[in-house]
Design goal:
- Chains A, B, C: Keywords: ATP-binding, Cell membrane, Disulfide bond, Glycoprotein, Ion channel, Ion transport, Ligand-gated ion channel, Membrane, Nucleotide-binding, Receptor, Transmembrane, Transmembrane helix, Transport.
- The structure is a homotrimer.
- Chain A is of the alpha+beta class.
- Chain A is about 20% helix and about 35% strand.
- Chain A has 9 helices and 19 strands.
- Chain A starts with a helix and ends with a strand.
- Chains A and B meet through β2, α2, β8, β11 and β15 of A and β1, β4, β6, α3 and β12 of B.
């Protein structure tokens, strides 16, 4: 570039280029112009701030715990088991009362199995044989119950039989009862205790009435009059999903129970209420499809007087309930507050344990970027996490951009 | 401010200020200008709408249920246990067939433990002693098996020994077998049944072929020809993660199985297919590190004829499989549809049970802000949730801004 | 529209309308103008890029596995059970060492229950009776232990009694011990092994020191000097939540342990460290509320010499620990890199197994839209997932817009 070009560039670099305006000194046009401005401002304030609540800060990192407890007994009288009473300990698996629990509704029992040799079940395609050579010793039966001993067992003079196997004998041969053994489980109830906490706002709540009246939970049922009595009849839960308990009890299935907490924490805590949703989470439209139903096998192990182990095998059909919690809580937007309201503590209710310092929040947003050495972190005793979920929220984010967090435990 | 100033302000308030435009009546320049406009519009329509599918509504609140079932038997012959056949009930923990299951591959068995006093294991550093005063009675052994009785047990004239403890005796002393006891578990199979549902679109699907042919699942194997037969050989699953089953079986480990449903619901349901990913979720690169492997202890409890309890302690090494599901479904964007297409139901296939009314959606988006009283919510019978996931999506959000929801149950 | 109108439209369609500019050749104004431009640019580079790290790509689809192991023994001497030692197998439920485990701290034991008839507990409101007609035979007692036989059992000449029931007899009648039976569990320790992986960046790490020194984990304790020894004393964990272990042990409760990995992968892996948070996840402020505490019942089943089943029923109070992992990893933003840096592999450390090809990523973003046929997907052997989390990230998204993914398994 020549000297002239350089000089031109330098000059044009310092040119100030601006748009040329026309100012119309006309009252009618001016009034219209200002009206337009005011309406845009009104739109922003009314729609974006008040209706859409864009000024709010949202916490989606919900902490939640679920405790479940099933109640109910039923009596059965079968040729196999005789008279038998079933209580919760007998029919709920696992017993711990977590968010997923299985209620046995139908059973195939094979008692007194011992390690021995016996004929494989005729239902296993791979076990059919005509002669001993069809049963190579030591080879497991595919999808079967044991390892072949080398003999083909045929009843009398039959041409076909099944391989003899080394297994827990006798093997399970009975079919699923057509009528569910524990169909009465329809009337059992489940108590679902849910505790939630929004760490950012240090707000917590349960779905159970906070009372000292010990008889409350012994007598109440969930309903319009008792929204804070989360005790549900199993049969009703199933019917709310559009299914029938007795039908479902035969083959088993999965039910999803969803608890949703969508809380506007600018309002009083009493307006932060749980909502319940019930869904069937297995293939209800293909009753006869191979993929329908839910069952599993478990056993109780015993030892006889000689110290030899034996077991009772149960093939349990039943309904699994998966309780899921999701939700979010909203509160005044930090950004807006940091700039416009100095003493925002005023807005928090006394009933929340601690009030988050907004300036502390700003610092936190900074500090989460700089690595915290474990020494700093665990000074003497890690403090109760009050908003340290590590989620920064410097900008004002509209709710619809935020997805609910699903927590399954 | 004086009267003049006020008047000036009032006048300038009603001034209408606008930019001054030049209109060039030149066909070449004009053509270029319009071409530019058209290309921007084309970009928007083609790229943003058709390619990026920004017009779509996305549902990330996937509901999912997993049922797993392991099949396979194996035979072992050890000096300790004699001839023994292991079936699913023996080696899968827990038995319920949930999304996390553990397959025992190696075992240390300590039979016939009773509450008694005996010598602590020599492997416990805290139990070593020279004389009785090294064993303060009543003090538990750190990371040990029992509570000290006060005596130091030394074999013969040895200088060092271990404290006598009150514990389940004899204590476990054997080491992990170098060759996995149940290495044959490599050939076991697992059937992973997954049902998913996008509540917003009321779309559901399973990963199992919808057939009534009962033999299908008894004979099929997952593969290119059978993508809807989710039956996996355990050895193959481990090899797909880059590990070796027999090596992993010695010390144990964790395998993650991820099922991903990324569905464009504008296309037919048959194009919404699951994809499977397999990962090793423990430290495979530090085989000899202290943090490698996976084991736990459990026991079977018995009572002898006199009613005294005894137990068999198992230290089980094995592979835990964690099945995780994530996914999202996309459909026409609400915003665009609400404004431009009135009767959008037309677009939904008849095979979906119910079609969500878009106007209902708009109301829902409103109602989720106003607290719903429990009476309203639970009128008579809670309806099947059809889109009430509480997730509002008023704007058109590009897919890449949305993260997949992980559901672990 | 007439011909004239058409012609006018056509002409105005090709008009090129632009703003009219003023160029002020004034050095002072020009300098000011350029200074303003430079400061905006500086703001963008320094604040948005360097401080806010908007150029980074973020992976929130964390994969995680948790293995837990409790250690500790305690000795009890009660009239009921005699001298008894409790080890991990006795008091931890379930035994598998998953991310949720329950430590029994208090027990009500009802030994030798058999299927028989006996009087219902007086605590069950529904079982109270004055005469036999109050006990309709076959009807289960609501929230009770069995099915009515039809008789009303009254002690001596008392007016009131309870119905006779068919149940597991004798029924549980004892109250919860006021002093926790296993209060010593305070000194038990739990080892929490966590392995995480960011699939997008193929970065993985554990929270345990990578050493071959087998004694390390036998002697270390979590603390400022040992941040990579995740062995926690249960009593300390409870105290960090602001609660007292002995008090909590009486009725039970739930503790949440959160592990957070917020990793800037532009820095060395040694700076990607876990942070631990401890919270109480049940209603600690309503100690006497009906919704406080955590307990469940389980049983051990036995058979006597005659083959008749009997069981010991346990009502276990205790503390459930829920370990949750969340986190995200950030790395250079794709968009920026794709355009400006061709060989970005340079930036990745050799210690990561594989380096993701950025062009591959761009293709992946494309391919995730086109349906992948299972044949393509499962060619011979599904490759280890290297970034195929299906999450596209074409734009530069600020961190604060992204929420942490919570993974509970």
């Amino acid at each position: 570039m020549g000297q002239a070009g350089c000089k031109g560039l330098y000059q044009s670099l310092l040119d100030y280029k601006t748009e040329k305006y026309v100012i119309a000194k006309n009252k009618k046009v001016g009034l219209l112009y200002r009206l337009l401005q005011v309406s845009i401002l009104t739109y922003l304030v009314v729609w974006v701030f008040l209706v859409k609540k864009c000024y709010q800060d949202t916490d989606t990192s919900l902490q939640s715990s679920i405790i479940t407890k099933v109640k109910g007994v039923t009596f059965t009288n079968t040729s196999e088991l005789g008279e038998r009473l079933w209580d919760v300990v007998d029919y709920v698996v696992p017993p711990q009362g977590e968010n997923v629990f299985f209620v046995v509704t139908n059973l195939v029992v094979t008692p007194n199995q011992r390690q021995d040799t016996c004929a494989e079940s005729e239902r296993i395609p791979d076990a059919l044989c005509h002669e001993d050579s069809d049963c190579p010793p030591g080879k497991p039966v595919v999808a079967g119950n044991g390892v072949r001993s080398g003999r083909c067992l045929r009843a009398g003079s039959a041409q076909k039989g099944t391989c003899e196997i080394f297994a827990w004998c006798p093997v399970e041969t009975k079919s699923r009862p057509v009528k569910p053994l524990l169909g009465e489980a329809e009337d059992f109830t489940v108590y679902i205790k849910n505790f939630i906490r929004f760490p950012k706002f240090n707000f917590s709540k349960t779905n159970v009435l906070d009372t000292r009246d010990k008889t409350f939970l012994k007598s109440c049922k969930f309903g319009p009059k008792n929204p804070y009595c989360p005790i549900f009849r199993l049969g009703s839960v199933v019917s709310w999903t559009g299914s029938n308990f007795r039908e479902m009890a035969v083959q088993g299935g999965v039910i999803g129970i969803q608890i949703e907490w969508d809380c506007d924490l600018d309002r009083p805590p009493s307006e932060c209420n749980p909502r319940y949703y019930f869904n069937r989470l297995d293939n209800r439209f293909s009753e006869n499809s191979i993929s329908s139903g839910y069952n599993f096998r478990f056993a109780k192990y015993y030892r006889d007087a000689a110290g030899v182990e034996f077991r009772t095998l149960f093939k349990a059909y039943g309904i699994r309930f998966d309780v899921m919690v999701n939700g979010k809580g909203s509160f005044f937007c930090d950004l807006v507050l940091i700039y416009f309201i100095k003493k925002s503590n005023f807005y928090r209710d006394k009933k929340y344990e601690e009030v988050r310092d907004l300036e502390g929040l700003a610092q936190m947003a900074e500090s989460s970027r700089q690595r915290v050495a474990p020494e700093q972190q665990l000074a003497e005793q890690p403090e109760v996490q009050d908003g340290g979920s590590g989620q920064k929220e410097n900008g004002c984010v509209c709710r619809q951009l935020l997805q609910p967090t699903r927590i399954t435990r």
